[in-house]
UniProtKB/TrEMBL annotation, chain A:
Name of the gene this protein is made from: NCAS0C02780
The entry's keywords: DNA-binding, Isomerase, Topoisomerase
Gene Ontology, cellular component aspect: nucleus; RecQ family helicase-topoisomerase III complex; site of double-strand break
Protein name (Swiss-Prot/TrEMBL): DNA topoisomerase
Substrates-to-products reaction catalysed: ATP-independent breakage of single-stranded DNA, followed by passage and rejoining
Coiled coil: none
Domain Topo IA-type catalytic: 171-641
UniProtKB/TrEMBL annotation, chain B:
Protein name: RecQ mediated genome instability protein 1 OB-fold domain-containing protein
GO molecular function: enzyme activator activity; four-way junction DNA binding; single-stranded DNA binding
Any Pfam family the entry gives: RMI1_N_C
Name of the coding gene: NCAS0C02520
Highest taxon in the source lineage: Eukaryota
Gene3D superfamilies: RecQ-mediated genome instability protein Rmi1, C-terminal domain (2.40.50.770)
Residue ranges, annotated region (Disordered): 218-238
InterPro entries, sorted: RMI1_N_C_sf, RMI1_OB
Occurrences of domain RecQ mediated genome instability protein 1 OB-fold (ranges): 55-205
GO cellular component: nuclear replication fork; RecQ family helicase-topoisomerase III complex
Biological processes annotated in GO: DNA topological change; double-strand break repair via homologous recombination
Bias (Basic residues): 228-238
Amino acid sequence: MKVLCVAEKNSIAKSVSQILGGGRSTIRDSTYTYVKNYDFQYSGFPFGNGQDCQVTMTSVAGHLTSVDFRGDIYGWGKCPIYELFDAPLSTEMDSNQKKIASNIQKEARNADFLMIWTDCDREGEYIGWEILQEAERGNRRLNEQQVYRANFSHLERRHILDAARRPQRLDMKSVSAVRTRMELDLRTGVTFTRLLTDTMKQKVEASRLQVNNNSNNNNIQNNQNHHKKKKDSPVIVSYGACQFPTLGFVVDRFERIENFVSEEFWYIQLQIKNADTGDSTTFQWDRGHLFDRLSVLTFYESCIETAGDKAKVVDLKSKPTSKYRPLPLTTVELQRNCARFLRMNAKKSLAAAEKLYQKGFVSYPRTETDTFPQNMDLKSLVEKQAQLDQPGNNKTAWASYAESLISESSSSNNKFRFPRSGSHDDKAHPPIHPIVPVSGNANLNIDEKRVYEYIVRHFLACCSEDAKGQSTTLILDWAGEKFSASGLIVLERNFLDVYPWAKWETTKRLPRLEMNEECEISKADMLSGNTSPPKPMTESELIMLMDANGIGTDATIADHIDKIQVRQYIRSEKVGKETFLQPTILGVALVHGFETIGLEDSFAKPFQRREMEEDLKKICEGRLSKEEVIVDIVGKYRDYWQRTNSAKNTLLEVFDRVRQSMS
Amino acid sequence: MASYLSSILSQDITQDIPFPSNLSSLGSREQLVIKAYKDEGWFSNVAMSSMVEQKLCKVDRELLFQVLMVENISKSKLNQVDEIKTKLDPKNQKVDTLRSGKKAPPKYKMVNQVDVDEDNDNTTNATSSRLANNAKTVFKFTLQNKNGDVFFGVNTTVLPWSSCLLGAKIIIKPGTIFNKGVFLLQDSNVIFLGGINKIWNENRDYKTCEYLEAKLERERENTTNSAKNKRKRKVPPN
């Protein structure tokens, strides 16, 4: 019996064949350099009835096809743009994809069964369907009863063996949803990109030329030799249904700062001398800051006149408190924290995590799940990180921490604990976690090493005890107004020892006061301050906003951010240790251009895209069909396109206006 | 009989309101309202300068006022303008924070799943702290009596009527503290009568927004001027 298995990448095919073949697979070249065919025997497939099957495991390299319009009829300038809303789509393959497809056809020719091993997400389901098309072309005898789909999320041996023993079927509803998304992205992207580029190209080029000339003039003055600037790549003003809302977030923050008005506020603050230490403790007013001087003055004078310098302790609470260990790691959290803690951008951190997954060091890094299945053996993963079989000088910096978590003899209270459960579960993959420890000679680049360390430390923190402390809150009553001060003593650091990015420190000691005790106020001040503007957008914040509002997926968020930087809609700006994202003139002009036309909610705001994502979910659930969603959304975009086309001058006027105000 | 009370509640009390000569036939609440209306106004014969200098005194009789304006002084004006604009024009709301869109209709609600700065710390509980914050919110009321004199009031306790319609009437009871033109209002020393002035409430969100924006513009000018003055001071003397 012959079985053809096809993975999404060669690295996965290699790892899976090694596991299923028990290390006895032979390797053959395919028609494409980066795809290999692995042959081995395996008897664990349920459809093989316990018999040895002759297995060939191969792979694709991501998508096997792309959807496009026929270039000879619908290429740029060859047809009226609006025709593209209805033009037929063609499935295209580049030369490499053709080579891969031909390998699948060839390998499928004599296969009795096909088993898809693509990543278990919507996109992987679609790639699985693309593989099936090619396999059927090579072998007309294959029918849907002979096609299976492996459900796996990492490359750990037992998990892969289990996936082979319990195959499922391709989910055609997910395939439909991806097909819908691809068609919509193509039709809306191409129509609006052509319209925007044709309309704005000259103006944007002229503006950039002017900026370059100015900059060259300055350079000439400084250094005659440096006057030649690199020629800019041709201007493409692209539209993407995720790119624009991503840009919108950045522009909104930029303008919030531009339009910020600092407001004065007033507040009352008390100081009480600590008899033991001689230090003063500041008590903050429960009402916080008020934006009206007269009102605060009324409170202040009323308190002084009524109670003088005496306040009374009305509440004294001392209670155990905890700093929670982090929730299990999702892709978005990984990207956000690598940006915050490691100063590594989202694209880089996801790429590093992907490589770590392909090399077998970590689980599948694209996941929305922040809950580990209760039956998952996490303790053995902690044990692997303890590297008990390694000599001391060969161990990682966190090995001894992992060892103490699982050691029976350790006197520490910080023992292995099953991680907390979050509220998200994509039903496909567990949270990101390490699979095997890195050895000293592991073939990892610097980014991969840093991301790996972050993943392991996060995982070990998840499997640790919360940090424990004692918090004390003292509340004083001064003529009816409440003032409070809090103190914290950290008693057990626990997970904080392996997770240096979380800060939780013991604070200054509070004065020793009893309940109902009257105390003397050493200082009562009415103070004022001013509000300050928010900081520009950071990548970490942008990722969070995109994720929360359904712009892109965990896998594509980094690409969208990168794309609008390449298109010069935003640029990154380094200030000290922080990197901020700022919009360019073109970025602001596009947002305001569509706003002036009256299409603000459909373009630079997240609402339209979110609606589409909800529709795609409904396709996956069988509540809507692909056709229904396409007709509805293409209809809307056709209308937007006509409105934009008849208001092209508005876009240009807005560009001039923005350039003038931002230059 | 109730018509006397309703005539007060629905009118601008700076206008003349006719009353029956015989009050004994009215209910006790109506009698109280009419008495408060008829009484001499608070600081009625005193110069404005003395009134605003008056430190901490107690109200000695029932005082009737109509509410001209209610301002939330716990929240910055910029935030309030943002909220009102989101309510009036949700499509154009700013979307750059996870706090955005709270006042927007469902279609335009921004998703708020994560707290930007709170790092999973069980010492804070979002819901209870929000409720506590509401309890601490301070409103500044602009109050007017029948003589047209204007005073302010701030709440020291939660007032269930703080989101009242403009033109609503209140009676401030004896014992209330008054300091430099401001009454310190507690729920127990104010009787809320209700009422409305329809014209004042027309397009109230727009009016409030314009008012707040005008105040912000003044703050902006002040900041610019003070920056200019600072720059001037930096010039060394000749």
